[in-house]
Amino acid sequence: DVKEAKTFFENEKLSYKIFGKGRKIVVQIPQPGGQLNRQDVIYLVMGDVTSDGKIKVIMPDVTGLPIRTAMQILNAIGVKVKCNGSGFVVSQDPKPGVEIKEGQVCIIDFAMKDAS
User: Fold this and answer.
1) Is the pTM value of this prediction over 0.90?
2) Angle at 58 between CA 78 and CA 91, to 5 degrees
3) Where are the beta strands (DSSP E) in the chain?
4) What digits encode the pLDDT tens for the residues 54-86?
5) pLDDT in tens, 14-29
6) What is the Cα–Cα distance from 115 to 93, expressed in whole angstroms?
7) Cβ–Cβ < 8 Å for 47, 22
């Protein structure tokens, strides 16, 4: 439950970021029981579970994330990623908010952040 997770992370003074939409946490990075440093960010991906037990996920907005983090999140929800460039996400297809299916291909464009 996301409310319980938020309360726990806030009580423990841990940073977290929520991606996608839904009533349930369907993916957590790092996975429960994994190594975590106080400065690390915990990524929660939201979704829903259908009446037949399948996970329904809405494409999260990964814009601005570094390549490694975006790949972790998208791979964890079963999306295949085609990358263009390197650095940080500047665009994605499908767009955030679209329902996605496991195995669907997402095209991500990356670029380096401007140093100015």
Assistant:
1) no
2) 85
3) 15-19, 24-29, 41-49, 55-58, 80-84, 88-93, 99-100, 105-111
4) 778 889 999 999 998 899 899 888 889 999 999
5) 999 998 888 888 888 8
6) 26
7) yes
